[in-house]
Description:
The structure holds two protein chains of two kinds. By secondary structure, chain A is mostly beta strands. Chain A has strands at residues 4-6, 10-13, 19-25, 31-38, 42-51, 54-57, 64-70, 73-78, 87-94, 108-109, 113-117.
Amino acid sequence: xxxxxxxxxxxxxxxxxxxxxxxxxxxxxxxxxxxxxxxxxxxxxxxxxxxxxxxxxxxxxxxxxxxxxxxxxxxxxxxxxxxxxxxxxxxxxxxxxxxxxxxxxxxxxxxxxxxxxx
Amino acid sequence: xxxxxxxxxxxxxxxxxxxxxxxxxxxxxxxxxxxxxxxxxxxxxxxxxxxxxxxxxxxxxxxxxxxxxxxxxxxxxxxxxxxxxxxxxxxxxxxxxxxxxxxxxxxxxxxxxxxx
Lengths: 118, 116
């Protein structure tokens, strides 16, 4: 079974703090993703990475950065946390699209980190 | 641009009732994939099904069934004889095949409450 773990289930931080959210997957997946989930808005993609040291912006990257130094680990960084970043953060991984066939594989999700910024 | 709409934000049913969750999508691509995920109260999204745009056959898995209709750009999900354990938020998602990183676009989710 694919296992995606996130460093914390609940986190409370103060405005202005630097926040690190860690995600680790054990299935050797090339693709990793960070989403935030807010009521009524579904999941919105913040950043994704398709290889070590590679990253691409998603739909809402402002105020966030990411780091992928090892294949199994993908970190989300809030440089200076603000109250509007209070949310549920979900990490996911998936196998890559390979070869000539255009295929999208399902993503496997971690349990989420509920971050509150006060 | 791709878009997924789940018009039902909340649905409440009594146990053993059948319930259908609607999903309507928009895409300009001819090759795409559709997904359904379940998010129980524990928070972790659980993959339910993946469907590609060339396979319009309906699928049944136990009490779950999916109706894919390209003509109406819909991919609806039906739970037959609902149970309390079906209570969760359900997400529909879309991916244009082969996009960089296998990105998904999610709908807003439908919260299903099944009462005993």
